[in-house]
UniProtKB/TrEMBL annotation:
This is Uncharacterized protein. Keywords: Coiled coil. It comes from Anisodus tanguticus. Belongs to the WEB family. The lineage of its organism: Eukaryota, Viridiplantae, Streptophyta, Embryophyta, Tracheophyta. It holds the Pfam family WEMBL. Residues 63-149, 406-468 form a coiled coil.
Amino acid sequence: MEKEKDKGCVLKYMANLKIQLEAKDSAHKQAFLELDHHENTVDELCSLLMSSELEKDIYMIECRRLRIHVHELESSIQEMDDRSLESVMIREQLSHAIDELKANQRELVAARDAIVDALTQVEVMENSLSKEKLKIEELLRNVSKLNETVLHLRMSVIEAEENTALLYERESELELKAANAKEEVVFMRPQLEMMQDLENELLDKSALINSMKAELQQANELHASSEKDTSDAVSEVKKLKEALELQERKNWDQSGYISLLESELRQLKGVLNKANEEADRANADFRTINIELEQSKKEMVEIRKKETKAQAEIAFLKSELHQGRSKIAAAEVADSVAKSEKSALHIAVQQLALEAEEVKNEIKRLKEASKPSVENQNEESKEKKGEAKSYMTRTSKPVHEEPNEIQVLEKELKAATVKISELRTRTEQAISRAEAAEKGKAALENQIKRWKEHKERKKAALAALKEESISKEITEYKSDTSPKTLQPLGKVLRMKY
């Protein structure tokens, strides 16, 4: 009876074991299904991680682009500041150009006055030249008169020489007569009486001779004086000739110089005409410049208004830049958080994979342990109760342990799903931020395009102003170079005649 009771207990125990084995098999099947589900979730998590990595790379690229765009905006702001400084410099240049134009107008007025003075001086020179021409004509007349007097003096000298020759002939004749008379006196002493008469005649003749000698002396003196006069006249004639030659040379030089002066006068008249034309052009240019200056002043007022607007826009852009930087910093923080979460997810997934492998190994071990238990049921029924109880204690421990591990896995799966949902929400927020950043980028690009168009307009205006300043400098240079042609006039006016 005891054996039957033991058999009944063993059979009941075996039935319970069968029920427990069937429950374990169903639990193992559920665990396998859950493991497959967990593997699928792990694969999904891996794909989500890959997509999050791709999105993170995209966001990093966008962050780099935004940084580049921020640097470009900073450079554009610096360019705007430089352009504002250039506009201030251009204002100063315009004020200097206006002062230079006023100075050029004063110089033009002074040049006109100098030209008028030069014309008056030229007229005075023409009058002096006409007077000098009259003086030269008078000198030529005096020279002709002096030539006539020289000819008369030469004729008188020739006549005096002829008279002296006649006087010398008479003296020689008288001396011969005196010698003959003396000889006759010596040889004809007896004829003294007659000689006395002859002496008386001789006395008369001697008186005549003395008178003739006096006349000869006078003639000699006249001859000497005439020779002196002739020498003086010759020297005077030579001097007059030299003076005439000098005067002729001067006349030639003066005639050449007069021709040069006439040519210079013509040139000066042409220069005056050109100067008048240039003055008219300068006045017209000055009027146009005044009109342009008024327009430029209006444009400067508009530019100032635009600059105030630009400064306001720059301040707004700076605020937007600060906002963009804060957004970039927030995105970087979000990226770092995403990296940390990604690393945590990687660690969690690795832990889940390890735990899944451990569960698989335990299930395999349990299956391997359950197979010999089913085959050796008859043999185990014959064993003792202690062995059965020990076997029950051995098998009951993993049965109680397996549900705890499954619950832990379920908790971890729930935590992983929560993390995945959080990651999805963060990715959606990052996408919305990226869209907002793209919108801000588009708005900034539009503003930059507007600024570029404004800069191009400013450049065109500056180029036009520079061209106008260059043309003004050229006109100023012409006005400066035109009076330089009047330098020979100063030399002419300073000449001494």
